[in-house]
Amino acid sequence: MPETHTIILVSQDGKEESFECAEDAAVLSAAEAAEITIPAGCRKGMCGSCRGRCSQGNYELRSFSEDILSESDRERDEVLLCQTFPKGPLTIEVPVDHAQLVAGPIPEFSCELLSNEELGGSVRRLRLKALPDETGSINTAFEPGQFLELQIPGTETQRAYSLANAPNWSGDMEFLIRLQPDGLFSSWLDKEARPGDTLRACGPQGDFTIKEGSLAPRRFVAGGTGVAPMFSMLRQMSESQETQDARLYFGLNTEEEIFAKSELDELEASLSNLSVQICIWTPGPDWQGFTGSPVDALKIDLVDDLAKGTQPEVYLCGPPGMVNAALAMIEDVGLPAENVFSERFVAN
After folding, report:
1. Which helix (H) or strand (E) is 115 found in, with range?
2. Phi, psi of 332, deg, nearest 5
3. Which helix (H) or strand (E) holds 114?
4. What is the pTM for the complete model shown?
5. Is residue 133 predicted with pLDDT exceeding 90?
């Protein structure tokens, strides 16, 4: 019988929760069995949602994406809890508050597909509405930046997508989803999804959320559909009439990939302190905007911010290469790490 070890989770507010985990079980699975809630997405080492840092103990890391957990990450003993198997007692720091750890199982609910709209650049805007539960209640409260896992009807296949709309009490949800060749959810969305379809959803989940109560300037850096949680954050800022300086750097490979341009224009008009910069890596000869990556554009402004004594908050969401490049640049120019919030994603 596999040996069992004590796992201690330390929340970002310094509180602890402990449970037992067998050597043949992943820490995430054992935590869930103990009714401890850790943010998680794919559970296959491909999304990075269940990231933590092991400050004590020996463990085995199994299958994971090198894009999500790099060699330098592993040198800092960062781990993905869905792929971490204990070899002895472990102490693991997790980037969530204690209240979330003990909040109970992640909610599941049904929702109705309202619309499936092409936005350009092979991106769809999927609008869903949560259906009332058995008590007649709709409870889909989420924080800007969080995600849901959506299940393809009639299957067990789930995919995680960030919400793009502002929090609301009506159960309305919006997602920006790039169609991936041979992707299971993409194929369903492209060929089968129809208004009136019913999906199961799990969430909200994730700790990539906006820092509440802060008056610091905000810099949002997005690659592709990594702009979805930025939409949610900025729409919330607009509804709350927040006044701090905000800039969105939206990175795409070519002009043909641009999507949601009218929505960006509307957002810029509704939030007077917001400026939006679309960054094209390989533009055509007629492109008049910024040429380069969103990290390049951020660096120009960030160096200027720091020279003026301003330390903005930076929010990063996109492919691992973009996020890793941004983190390295931010460290190099000297912005404190506690001002930086990031989420990586890999197309699945």
Report:
1. strand 108-120
2. -65, -40
3. strand 108-120
4. 0.88
5. no
